[in-house]
Design goal:
alpha/beta, 6 helices, single chain, three-stranded antiparallel sheet, Rossmann fold, 11 strands, eight-stranded mixed sheet
């Protein structure tokens, strides 16, 4: 049975969704915005990149917070953003609207792109790839499984590897998932994830990544950044 997400306030005052019976949250209960900022924006090292556009691909769009925080960073730095995200179990538009509003993104152009993409998806229910653009900001949602899209020679600067944990989405943490991530990155590109489990480190190394541990945010001692070398 489908479980209705519950909107909850996290320790840093930002909001995310919880699935209580599954004992999972979309972002950390210790600070949803802090996790996006420190683990994904900070850990990926994309903030150090001066070239434009930033090209980011994500596994697990969820509430869209990683995209919205990254778009804010791009706006502040006056760089363009091309953002692609995979989500095979999307939230509904009304649920996204509630968490976007709760977190104060409702008047930003990035939120308009989220609305445009999910409105199109709810209307069609057929298109696996839907894209919206506003000047220097581009968002594409792939409503399919990680690995289903062939991007050809297009390469990304960063992978935000952000599915639910292995207990909920075991297939997302297997060797083929990391091999696909490796294939999407340019040389020198990074993959960042909230998990620092030993098995994750070994799998990343097995497909060719160099792996580094970084200090995690509240509630998470360490996170991982992996480099395509």
């Amino acid at each position: 049975m489908f479980e209705k997400p519950l909107l909850i306030e996290t320790a840093d005052g930002s909001f995310t969704f919880s699935l209580p019976t599954q004992k999972v949250t979309y972002r950390s209960k210790y600070g949803a915005r802090r996790e996006s900022q420190q683990v994904f924006l900070g850990g990926s090292q994309i903030l150090k990149q001066s070239s434009s556009p930033w090209r980011i691909v994500e596994l697990g769009f969820g509430t869209g917070m990683n995209f919205l925080e990254t778009a804010r960073a791009c706006f502040e730095r006056k760089v363009a953003l091309e953002y692609v995200s995979f989500e095979n179990k999307p939230l509904g538009l009304s649920e996204l609207e509630s968490v976007i509003s709760a977190n104060g993104y409702q008047d930003e152009s990035a939120s308009e792109l989220v609305r445009a993409v999910f409105s199109d998806f709810e209307y069609s229910q057929k298109d696996r790839r839907i894209k919206a653009r506003d000047r220097s900001l581009s968002l594409e949602l792939c409503f399919c499984n990680w690995g289903d899209i062939d991007f050809g020679q297009d390469k990304f600067d960063t992978v935000y590897f952000d599915p639910f944990g292995p207990k909920s989405q075991a297939d997302s943490w297997g060797p083929s998932a990391f091999a696909y991530a490796f294939s999407l990155l340019r040389v020198g590109g990074t993959l960042v994830t909230y998990s620092s489990a030993g098995q994750v480190q070994r799998l990343l190394k097995s497909v060719g990544f160099g792996v580094q541990k970084l200090p995690g945010p509240a509630g998470k001692r360490e996170v991982l950044v992996a480099h395509r070398i």
